[in-house]
Amino acid sequence: MSPSVSPSLTSRRWRDDLYLAHTIADQVDPLTQAHFERQDFEVETKPDLTPVTEADREAEQRIRDYLARARTRDSVYGEEFGTTGHSPRQWVIDPIDGTKNFVRGVPVWATLLSLVEDGEVVLGLVSAPALGRRWWAVKDGGAWSGRSLSSARRLHVSAVSEMADASLSYSSLSGWAAQGRLRGMLGLMQSCWRTRAYGDFWSYMLVAEGAVDLAAEPELELYDMAALVPIVTEAGGRFTSLDGQDGPWGGNAVASNGLVHTEALACLSQATDPV
């Protein structure tokens, strides 16, 4: 964190948790990166038809083991092993977000760590070792990116206010079709200046950095979104469901610089696909 920025009392409340999240990421990154470089894993298909590898499971288990020692009272919810514990303080884990990229040798994947307190995401960290990048935020503490806490820059969303000037990132069109929302998504794409499928966590980090202005996905789980929310919002943006519900609770996501958010939601809700 830059010495010129004084953290608020609120952000100091989660200072130790943020240090812990960085420490965990420091331990997990070499594990996932080694698997990625060697491509030495078998790929299985889960009941929801998404891929999973032993690297996913090993990474989540390492995170859980660390949390079991450092945060004995907190509960944990992860993609691979579900929920343990009953505390209102809950760590939410996606050990490898972007597994399809991971298994094909595409470097756009990351470990997502977040902390939820009493129904609010108060901390998020995204670590993408193959990209050599890391992003993080705590409530009222700003959003940051860098290789470490001591070497970071503060993030700010863009100032683009017109949809005709906006850049949109997404993951795929097939999900929109499966949810019966392809017509609305295509309408949004046609309204924007530029569209690119950067995909997964990276779309939202680009929103936080101001490199793109809008990102959206039609179907997501809590562990896909929780870590992203504080990074986008602390950078000055907005993160909601397609119905406008703030946070990662709606099963899908629209993230933006805030200035084009209302118009984006309107585009996505205007038309649904014919039955």
Automatic annotation (TrEMBL):
<feature type="binding site">
    <location>
        <position position="97"/>
    </location>
    <ligand>
        <name>Mg(2+)</name>
    </ligand>
</feature>
<dbReference type="GO" id="GO:0004401">
    <property type="term" value="F:histidinol-phosphatase activity"/>
</dbReference>
<dbReference type="GO" id="GO:0046872">
    <property type="term" value="F:metal ion binding"/>
</dbReference>
<dbReference type="InterPro" id="IPR051090">
    <property type="entry name" value="Inositol_monoP_superfamily"/>
</dbReference>
<dbReference type="InterPro" id="IPR000760">
    <property type="entry name" value="Inositol_monophosphatase-like"/>
</dbReference>
<keyword id="KW-0479">Metal-binding</keyword>
<keyword id="KW-0460">Magnesium</keyword>
<comment type="similarity">
    <text>Belongs to the inositol monophosphatase superfamily.</text>
</comment>
<feature type="binding site">
    <location>
        <position position="94"/>
    </location>
    <ligand>
        <name>Mg(2+)</name>
    </ligand>
</feature>
<keyword id="KW-0028">Amino-acid biosynthesis</keyword>
<dbReference type="GO" id="GO:0000105">
    <property type="term" value="P:L-histidine biosynthetic process"/>
</dbReference>
<feature type="binding site">
    <location>
        <position position="79"/>
    </location>
    <ligand>
        <name>Mg(2+)</name>
    </ligand>
</feature>
<protein>
    <recommendedName>
        <fullName>Histidinol-phosphatase</fullName>
        <ecNumber>3.1.3.15</ecNumber>
    </recommendedName>
</protein>
<dbReference type="Pfam" id="PF00459">
    <property type="entry name" value="Inositol_P"/>
</dbReference>
<keyword id="KW-0368">Histidine biosynthesis</keyword>
<comment type="pathway">
    <text>Amino-acid biosynthesis; L-histidine biosynthesis; L-histidine from 5-phospho-alpha-D-ribose 1-diphosphate: step 8/9.</text>
</comment>
<comment type="function">
    <text>Catalyzes the dephosphorylation of histidinol-phosphate to histidinol, the direct precursor of histidine.</text>
</comment>
<keyword id="KW-0378">Hydrolase</keyword>
<dbReference type="InterPro" id="IPR020583">
    <property type="entry name" value="Inositol_monoP_metal-BS"/>
</dbReference>
<feature type="binding site">
    <location>
        <position position="96"/>
    </location>
    <ligand>
        <name>Mg(2+)</name>
    </ligand>
</feature>
<feature type="binding site">
    <location>
        <position position="224"/>
    </location>
    <ligand>
        <name>Mg(2+)</name>
    </ligand>
</feature>
<dbReference type="InterPro" id="IPR011809">
    <property type="entry name" value="His_9_proposed"/>
</dbReference>
